[in-house]
Amino acid sequence: MNKRLSQKIFFTLFRLISLMIVIVLFSILGFIVFNGAKVISWNFLTQMPTDGMTKGGIYPAIVGTLILVLGSMIFAFPVGVAAAIYMNEYVKEVPAKRFMRLMTSNLAGVPSIVFGLFGMALFVNQLHFGDSIIAGSLTLGLLALPVVIRTTEEALKQVDDSFRLASIGLGATKLQTIGKVTLPIAFPNIITGLILSIGRVSGETAPILFTVAAYFLPKLPHSIFDQVMALPYHLYVIATSGTNITESRPIAYGTALVLISIVLICNITASVIRNVLGKRNK
């Protein structure tokens, strides 16, 4: 078998695999859209749930999900970016730094239920936050933190050292160089970490199950120490509870469609911001 034939075979194989992935993805999305669109309405999006969540809307779950995503990002994004800046800009290449990177990568692969148990032990019980928005947000923030750190560090590595040297050569301090030169150049790529983090925390069920999610709470929260409903847990409950499956199944598909739509809107918004910032840097 010559090299040209081998290349054609492997390229064809890769194309088939890519096509299969696309087909599976669109099949899943099409299935959810086809079944979920039947129950999507203004009332479904704006009303409180009733009759054991088999009727009414999912408004509290939508608001709760958005609050938890926002709260987790308020914690994870600045802390993760600061940690990545410290590791990339200040810490020299020593075994301790490689160990920190290894641990960060390992944390990114830890099952979410482990973070849920840790959040329950620390935030709910030890710090006495109880089942609350702040406990759930901090737990989800810890879940997203490794992703933010690794993507931010990679973004900072892509900034050419000539920019740093030029800034320092003009009399700027290291901190000024990071704030005025390095971060603005790397920020469009840093947004990628934010996108990945939003995608992960918005669909997690285990962490919020232990720290914040309520089974049935047809009202909106008034403080960060209140419980909330959330779309992932809401979807799990109505899909597995003993309610009438004929009534609850369409609501489950509709809830899944709304959750996917929220993640998609968040990702598109972050991508637009990234593209705008990237054009400005150019």
Summarize the structure.
With 282 residues, the chain is mostly helical.
Please provide a written account of the structure.
With 282 residues, the chain is an all-alpha fold. It has a domain at 61-230: MetI-like fold. Helix content is 76%, strand content 1%. The protein is built from eleven helices and two strands, in the order ααββααααααααα. The chain has helices at 3-36, 42-46, 59-90, 95-108, 112-126, 133-157, 161-169, 174-201, 206-211, 231-240, 245-281, and strands at 49-50, 55-56. It has a two-stranded antiparallel ribbon. β1 and β2 (55-56) form a beta hairpin. 35% of the residues are buried.
Q: Which percent band covers the strand fraction?
A: under 5%
| CATH level-two architecture of one domain | Orthogonal Bundle
What integer value in Å does the Rg equal? 22 Å
Instruction: Report the CATH topology name of one domain.
Output: MetI-like fold
**Which of globular, elongated, flat, extended, rod-shaped describes the shape?**
globular
CATH superfamily of one domain, please?
MetI-like
Q: Quick one: CATH class of one domain? A: Mainly Alpha
- Share of helix among residues? over 70%
Sheet with most strands: 2 strands, antiparallel
What's the order of the H and E elements? HHEEHHHHHHHHH
Number of contiguous helices:
11
Number of E strands: 2
Quaternary arrangement of the chains shown? single chain
Alpha-beta classification: mainly alpha
Distance between the termini: 47 Å
Low-pLDDT regions: none
Can you give the mean pLDDT?
Answer: 85
Strand order of the largest sheet: 1-2
